[in-house]
Amino acid sequence: MTPWWDYLLAVVAPLFLINGIPHFVSGLMGRKFPTPFVGGPPNFDSATRNVLWGGSNLLVGGIALWLLRDSVSNPIILVEMIALAFAAALGLSRIFSRLT
What we know:
Transmembrane segments: 51-68, 75-96
Keywords: Membrane, Transmembrane, Transmembrane helix
Order of helices and strands: HHH
Number of helices: 3
């Protein structure tokens, strides 16, 4: 039986992983990008802070995924993670498309 906290981690892992990608990539490209530290999309943050923010998001998502390593074979958890990753990517793409 799968513990209840695995379902919670299956929500956390894809959200952190998907959120870390644009911040980390923008920071590596040397571009400014909004982070929560500057109040959101109208304001932009430095590339260095975006690398740190994106990297920390990827680290937290990776740790959550590592904690789920035994439960990923559960089809409910796998579908939950894929659906949340797709929904988060779609939502973030709509938000970030307004920046350009």
